[in-house]
Amino acid sequence: MKTRSILLAGFVLGAFAITGVTLVAVTHLTVDERIVDNQHQAMQRKLATILPAGQSDNDPLADRIQVHAPDFLGIDTSQVYRVRKGDEPVAVVLEPVVPDGYAGPIKLLVSVLHDGTLGGVRVLSHHETPGLGDKIEESKSDWVLHFQGKSLTDPPLEKWSVKRDGGEFDQFTGATITPRSIVNAVKNTLIYVRQQGDRLFVPVDTSTPATVQGKS
């Protein structure tokens, strides 16, 4: 009788343990899926702000490739999202990293239209000083919005710098390093896209992300 009671207690405890582990696993999976979905939607909203409205019908987050171009994009491996209308290329969106921000790396989102002009630039993450370098956020100032429509010919390449360095782009009062670094990163992104030509725009089998090598 005593042995039976012990076995029954062990069975009950084991059942509780299995149920608890299962609940934790299911909850973890559900939360993870929700986080991924929220991140996907947030990225889609961000992309929508730097792409021509109504001129695409694919999901750029699914139509993407990996590129290796650290000299231009500031990171060893970077994602490139392709935007298209039917079979026609509309834009590519890249995620260059500014390695030399004032307070650390700055991650950007840069949209380059098929004609070589900028659809827009946004800051994904940074550690810049509040009240100074954080003016790169569109919620703090409109500075980053002024990239839209620019290209390597407008302004000319030699003018792709801040005004303090003889260029065409504004700097912030008391903070030149941050805008200088971002202007240079956006310029390098445009140079990379021009160098690659249609290699970045053509469709590929997205079941296996392709890798495009950059030339220095």
Automatic annotation (TrEMBL):
GO terms for cellular component: plasma membrane. Its cofactor is FMN. Its EC number is 7.-.-.-. Keywords: Cell inner membrane, Cell membrane, Electron transport, Flavoprotein, FMN, Membrane, Phosphoprotein, Translocase, Transmembrane, Transmembrane helix, Transport. It is found in: Cell inner membrane. Its main location: membrane. Pfam families: FMN_bind (PF04205). One of its GO terms (biological process) is electron transport chain. It is a single-pass membrane protein. It comes from the Bacteria. GO terms for molecular function: electron transfer activity; FMN binding. InterPro entries: FMN-bd, Ion_transpt_RnfG/RsxG. The keyword Membrane applies. The modification FMN phosphoryl threonine is found at residue 176. It is an enzyme of class 7 (translocase). Residues 101-193 form the FMN-binding domain. The complex is composed of six subunits: RnfA, RnfB, RnfC, RnfD, RnfE and RnfG. Part of a membrane-bound complex that couples electron transfer with translocation of ions across the membrane. Belongs to the RnfG family. This is Ion-translocating oxidoreductase complex subunit G. The gene is rnfG.
